[in-house]
Amino acid sequence: MNRKDFVNLNRLGKRRHTPHFTVIFKESGLSATRLGITVTKKVGNSAQRNRIKRLVREFYRLHKAHFPQGYDIVITAKKGAHGLNLWKTKEELGEIILDKELHI
Predict the structure, then answer these.
(1) What's the sign of the alpha-carbon dihedral 61, 86, 3, 70?
(2) What is the edge-to-edge ordering of all strands in the sheet holding 14-17?
(3) Where are the domains of the chain?
């Protein structure tokens, strides 16, 4: 996913919110699902930001089959997300992705 795709997704994508994440998604017209992860400096220092990215990637790896095909998805961490573990990450993101809320 390049910058143009991110900007387009931010402008035109649908948003779902959890206490610690914002999920933006839009159909891409491609056969594969593309995932982007954004964690800003507001969330914490570099070690905390990298940990959150690893947690989201692990959630994606474990639940790849449940993600809808042909979508661009950006998961943005909000302030306070640095205290999450994999279980809490799964709870929050699972509400949106695993419960099929992405399907329109």
Answers:
(1) positive
(2) 14-17, 21-27, 71-77, 34-38
(3) 3-97
Give the helix/strand (H/E) hosting 24: strand 21-27
The alpha carbon of residue 56 and the mean position of all alpha carbons in its chain are separated, in whole angstroms, by 7
As its CATH architecture, domain 3-97 has 2-Layer Sandwich (3.30)
pLDDT for the residue 58: 95
Dmax (CA) of the chain: 36
Neighbour-count burial of 18, counting CB atoms closer than 10 A to its CB (0-12 exposed, 13-18 middle, 19+ buried): middle
C-beta atoms surrounding 31 within 10 Å: 7
| 5-64 confidence digits (pLDDT tens) | 778 888 888 999 999 999 999 888 888 889 999 999 999 999 999 999 999 999 999 998
- Residues 6+ positions from 14 with CB-CB distance below 8 Å: 24, 25, 26, 104
Which tokens belong to 28? Answer: 């891409």
